[in-house]
Amino acid sequence: TQLLEQSPQFLSIQEGENLTVYCNSSSVFSSLQWYRQEPGEGPVLLVTVVTGGEVKKLKRLTFQFGDARKDSSLHITAAQPGDTGLYLCAGVWGSNYKLTFGKGTLLTVNP
Amino acid sequence: DSGVTQTPKHLITATGQRVTLRCSPRSGDLSVYWYQQSLDQGLQFLIQYYNGEERAKGNILERFSAQQFPDLHSELNLSSLELGDSALYFCASSVGQLSYNEQFFGPGTRLTVL
User: Fold this and answer.
1) Taking CB atoms and an 8 Å cutoff, what residues of chain B touch A104?
2) How far apart are CA B90 and CA B21, in angstroms?
3) Rounded to whole angstroms, how far apart are CA atoms B3 and B82?
4) How far is A68 from chain B, CA to nearest CA, in Å?
5) Residue B33 contacts residue B44 (beta carbons within 8 Å)
6) pLDDT tens across B35-90, in order?
């Protein structure tokens, strides 16, 4: 069974602060995705990373995929209350068709 | 709005009962995925259908079953319900059959088993 570990589990910060959340596995990913889920809604895809060392930016969000493709990070600059939500990473290994999700990081940005 | 619809939004039932959850994928999407989300287990993949055929299976209990119909909508049947089945159930859809294709999630069905 492939496992994804996300850290921290909970994060509460003030508006304007920077933060980084992490996603790790003991196995090499074929691809990795980051989703954001707001209360009462389904997850929404933010980004997909495939290549080791890849860096993608989405406005104030920066996603990095580790060189060995076993880990990833999400960095948010100058967090805003609208960034509040559950951030989930999800990975695919080899030719496995199953997308496995981590348990997520619950981010709260206080005004 | 992802374009994926799920009904009902809330469902309250008793142990031992059977319920059916319904999902309509985005127009043009051939794959439907079912997930269960609980506080302790997180988002768990249950099963995937692609164009009417079962494509992949995850942690789906034998008491649970699903199907995808010719019009591509899908139903998830949960029987002999237990208290531990209380959770959010999400349906997602994608164009292709590979799960790393972007999946679009519906708003979920919150199931409460009393």
Assistant:
1) 42-43
2) 10
3) 31
4) 19
5) no
6) 999 988 889 999 999 999 999 898 899 999 999 999 999 999 999 999 999 999 99
Distance CA B109, CA A72 (A): 30
Q: Which residues pair with A62 in a beta bridge?
A: A57, A75
Q: Tell me which residue in B48, B90, B100 faces A42 most closely, judged by beta carbons.
A: B90
Pick from A42, A48, A92: which is nearest to B106 by CB?
Answer: A42
Strand duo B109-113 + B10-13: pairing: parallel
Q: A100 CB near a chain B CB, below 8 Å?
A: yes
pLDDT tier at B99 (50, 70, 90 boundaries)? low
- What's the burial of B99, exposed, middle or buried (CB within 10 Å: 0-12/13-18/19+)? buried
pLDDT in tens, A52-81: 999 999 999 999 999 999 999 999 999 999
